[in-house]
Automatic annotation (TrEMBL):
Pathway: Glycan degradation; trehalose degradation; D-glucose from alpha,alpha-trehalose: step 1/1. Belongs to the glycosyl hydrolase 15 family. It catalyses: alpha,alpha-trehalose + H2O = alpha-D-glucose + beta-D-glucose. Keywords: Carbohydrate metabolism, Glycosidase, Hydrolase. This is Trehalase. Residues 233-596 form the GH15-like domain. Residues 608-632 are annotated as: Disordered.
Amino acid sequence: MTSRAKKALENDRRPIADYGLIGNMISTALVGRDGSIDWLCLPRFDSPACFASLLGTPENGRWRIAPAAATRRSSRRYLPQTAVIETTFETEDGAFELIDFMPLAEDEERSDIVRIVRGKRGRVAVEMELVLRFNYGLVVPWVRRRDYGLSAVAGPDAVELHTQAPLEGQNMKTLSRFEVAEGESVPFTLSYHRSHRRPHFVPDRGEALKHTVSWWQEWSKRCCFDPSQEHWREAVVRSLITLKLLTFRPTGGIIAAPTTSLPETPGGERNWDYRYCWLRDSALTLYALLNAGYREEAEAWRRWLLRAIAGRPDQLRIMYGLAGERWLPEHEIPWLAGYRDSRPVRIGNGAAQQLQLDVFGEVLDTLHTAREDVLASAPDAWKLQKVLLKHLVQIWHEPDQGIWEMRGPARHFTHSKLMCWVSFDRAIKAVERFGLDGPVDRWRAERDAIHAEICAKGFDPQLGSFVQSYGSKALDASLLLFSQVGFLPDDHPRILGTVNAIERDLLQDGFVLRYRPEHTVDPYKQPEGTFLACSFWLADAYVMSKRMDKAEALFERLLSVRNDLGLLAEEYEPASGELLGNFPQAFSHVGLVNTAFNLVRAAGPARQRAARTGPDVAAQNATTTGQARPQP
Ligand SMILES: OC[C@H]1O[C@H](O[C@H]2O[C@H](CO)[C@@H](O)[C@H](O)[C@H]2O)[C@H](O)[C@@H](O)[C@@H]1O
């Protein structure tokens, strides 16, 4: 076997959970346990990757710093309450730490990655390999030596490597070999800039580290999760830091994940680009941020939402780019082999063109919650809501692609209709509670008509459960949301029956599948992993029906599948114990935060949502359920 093939295989076998996330709220990088950065898009989350070995081979770009000799042991952690990763490598000759972080950046076209090698014990030989490949692992740049290191340019992109370590070019790669002794530091900075602009000054790396650490620690302190529940608080803070890392600071948009095409089925075709902002994820994200006390972030998210959706209501999209872009065409990238041969690798997302009726409900619920929680006034929000409702009156009867964005024929998905009901319901509440103007009688008639239709066509008396789409027998985890949006009382037999049916049909080793592909119109029939956000929704449904022990047990199991850094992908495969799908995924982390608050507060996000109220955080802090018993 050639060494190239060996390397490819080595890369193929790396579990998704082996990665950690660093970032500066403009872009992020995935750092492997072995010291290799295998995914980095520059300048923004949604730009082409310059390190793409995650989806191919090391030849598609990576930046590895690791011991030159065999590693005896390695361990890693985030520096407490930060987005800075510290990996410790131990060899026969001693030990060193590798500190990885991205300093905060103001300019969305300039980002730095800092890597500091710090000797801890003995004297260790270290190897650095930098393989730069712009445009998703394809384009080899023109590299020149500089007194500060090197510069590389190709087309619109340029990077500078700043280091005092010796550098050597070999086979289109840059290599370095040096030794580090106890107490010594060898820093590297990779700085991106547009090739038509001048490179920027790279400040002192020690100072940048101090500043980055203290910024994250101050930010984390703001989390108002009960500090006495240390174990859960730590998990909540890690999820919030991850959500913050997935936020595009210049606009406030939050992406679903920083990766594309990590497979939902290893070796399969369910490989999608998640580097965009989904409206669907907005209401639950807002509850998570507000409950945790992050008002500014919630306000920035709401402002992003209002800008993104502004315009004709019939042009509402289900997802947008970081700044609200609507043109997100889907392409396949043939030169990347795919993570464990999972092809195609896709860029852009065709689901952006779909009709998914539930997004109306998500948007109207988000704006309603913002009003209930007295976020800074947004005078145009109500006008926009009325226009959206006027359009929804015309279209809620239509079939759509549903919450799971199925690419088969359109259906009357029950969850989509449920969220249409939410749209009218929240608007009526806005009139009743805030005296806003609107055709409330018309809205009441629509709301009642949808309610009656769902109860007649979306419920199967034999199963005793709501079903995925009108007239079908298939179940769907999105039906777990019925109680938390307030459609029927928590203890209604139809709500309890639906939870029972999902427990019977969709559980795999205690985790929840979205649906069974063989029972649906989904054209991709390969089995996928269990869906983590849905598993959190089951825990929430247990809270709503006051089964706190079950809720707590499921929550603990979900915490146990996070990787060693506390990160979750979109899915989890119980048989192999692997995380699957794009990573880390915002929807999963939003689920974690909301379930944690549901467990510790008398009225957490699920009950707030059912009551159509916002989280009054001060009052919430004063009341905890006392029902949950977190482990120390
Ligand atoms: O696997 C099917 C679909 O998966 C993606 O969508 C999923 O992620 C979204 C973002 O978190 C979430 O809102 C949605 O409900 C999930 O199904 C993908 O982007 C779609 O193109 C794909 O059809």
